Amino acid sequence: MAEPRERTFIMIKPDGVQRGLVGEIIQRFEKKGFKLVALKQVWASEQLLQQHYADLASRPFFPGLVKYMSSGPVVPMVWEGLNAVKTGRVMLGATNPADSAPGTIRGDLCIHVGRNITHGSDSVESAKKEISLWFTDKEIVGWTPANDNWVYE
């Protein structure tokens, strides 16, 4: 395959974990053909979340976001594939579920912007930063799925 594959960071937020949607969200990425290279469940500290959402620190909702995100376990993941960042964002749907199309994760599975069940990197640069914040190099597993030739030319 001539086109490079990239990695993206996807995180299932506390509401997605509490509602039992982890399996369905993983299944959607697997069915699309992306490769899961890192996954864990953690109860994130406020300090880690402040680093993760640092670009939103000046926004009025920032304290509530950090408090909410540290209210329960989250499932951070790294997915790999062609155009993983862009396609991952499309699969998640708009940040506000009311603006998300049916068929997207947020369009199908949530209602309120404050409980939009997932986070996804918005650029390759953001993905690299987020991945390094949540995972060590040893936690990311390089491997080749048996169906790779059936997903990519």
Task: Explain how this protein is built.
It contains 8 helices and 4 strands, in the order E-H-H-E-H-H-E-H-H-E-H-H. With 153 residues, it is an alpha+beta fold. The chain has one domain: Nucleoside diphosphate kinase-like domain (Alpha-Beta Plaits, 2-Layer Sandwich). Strands 2-3-1-4 form a 4-stranded antiparallel beta sheet, sandwiched between helices.
Gist?
This protein has 153 residues and is of the alpha+beta class.
Find the count of extended strands (DSSP E, 2+ residues). Answer: 4
* Overall CATH architecture: 2-Layer Sandwich
Low-confidence stretches: none
Strand content: 15-25%
Indicate the CATH class: Alpha Beta
Instruction: Write down the overall mean pLDDT.
Output: 96
- Structural class comes to alpha+beta
CATH fold name:
Alpha-Beta Plaits
Total domain modules: 1
* Total DSSP helices: 8
What is the approximate shape?
globular
Numbering strands along the chain, what is their spatial order in the largest sheet?
2-3-1-4
Portion in helices:
25-40%
Assign the CATH superfamily: Nucleoside diphosphate kinase-like domain
Question: Could you give the distance between the termini?
Answer: 6 Å
Based on CA atoms alone, the radius of gyration comes out at 15 Å
